[in-house]
Records
---
Amino acid sequence: MDLPQQIAERVPPGRWVVGISGGADSTALLQMLRMRDDLQLIAAHLNHQTRADESDADERFVRAMASELRLSFESARLSEMQHLLNSAPANPSAKYRFARFAFFATVIETHACQGVILAHHHGDVIETVFQRLLRGSGFAGLTGIEPDTSVHGVRVLRPLLRCEPELLRAFLRSIGQSWREDSSNTSPAYSRNQVRCLLRQFPNLFESTGELQAACSALREWVCASAPTLSRRFPTRERARLPGILAAVSARRWLCDTGCPPGALESMHSEALLQMTRDASTASRHTFPGGTIVARKSGWIERIK
């Protein structure tokens, strides 16, 4: 089976948005997916307006390609989305990511799609893991990027995660398809570009990061399978019998089951719940995301609101 067919078969039939920037990765993804007769694709492009004429040229490029492929096309400019960005993070990269998913959510709703397909590849996985390692992430953060997940309520598929970027460019050359190069991808002002440059300089470091990612993924699978599910009302001593790594997963799972929004939960929330179970001198009540109030009484933990 050739590469395009392998990639395309990782996507369930149906109507999907494809996020396309005009770069080699997303252009290759769109060209591979269009080979499937059972996929109805909507090409979606957000113009971040960060590179003046270059950004506008990217938008014209993807619009023309979608027209040539006879695909529906949706685009938006960042300046048109300011009303949606009031709750966006202040960090520019996080803000742009927030804007992209807000845009994708709008397109998904408009066209009644199942979700969005993005072009992250194996190199992106390794760069992400290395960045998280530098920030001191735990093992769960070092598992990389999920191939099928939900972000801000949007289902996201990433069928290229095991694919090397060089193969994507080779595929585009083989079909005579051009692409756009983003000049900001070489700017040392961005931490991801610094990491990418470092990993290219030291291939052994790239390989070692990949091995770390694989090991952490295996560990997470074991932890998720081994961590017990806590009862809606459970005794503090039940947690005390668990190793810390399993207790943290059980605590997070319990908070989700009791009504906390999964996307709002961080490691500090699981730790707060565990602290209630192991230290009787801590406050007997704690408020968690979503307004969930948990109480400890006579050695038992339960949600009271």
Note: The chain has two domains: 3-127+144-190, 227-303.
---
Amino acid sequence: MRRTLALGVGLAALYISVLAATMVATGRPVRPLFDGLTPPPPYQWVTPPPGHGFNVKPHRSEASLPLTAAGSGLAGATGVNGQVVLNLPDRAIPPHAADSAVQVRFTPLDPDRLAPLPTGLVPDGNAYEIRMWYRPSGLPITDLTVAGNVILSTPEPASVLVFSADGHSWRTIETQRVGGPDAVGGPFGRAGHYVAAIPGRRPVPPARPASWLVTGRRILIAVLALALAVNLLARARQRRRTQPTRLT
């Protein structure tokens, strides 16, 4: 007991000493053991997994980037509550006529509503559709002159980024961890769909019976119900006929 108490007092004294030293060194009051350790916000799912609990559904967001006669400058755009970050190098987007800006749209999607990922991969979080167009003309921008990079936050440590121009066919792209296990980044050279993935198998939905079989079952149930009703009615009439007549 005395050793435990002494250890507790020693740790408290060490904490106070570090706190005092930090205040002297920085000139401001801080909690050195926790300073700067801000936990990331909860991941926002388009369709949360079963049993996930409370979830804030993400919404589409947009950003506007300036455009000059030389093209776009060094710029970054963040969308969907910071779950998508887009970094563009200088002159990634060429100039276009009298347009003065580039509009970027981030749309979070349920990846299970898109085509299956390459074999052996399952989505880790949402899919994101990234589209760009010139303003004010509205002309869509498909390919960049100089590739930038895209960073996705993930609910679990992801392994790879995959890309699809239309959401129907995917390909893996060069991927690296960014700032921790729950964020991955890769090259961004074209508008389209991006999703982080981990090894695994996509669950196979249960097979649904053919439409003709469902219709046949419904007809059979209806016929049986009608036959039962007719049988009950016939029995009721028979009972009434066989009941003896009361004499008054």
Note: The CA atoms of residues 116 and 204 lie 11 Å apart.
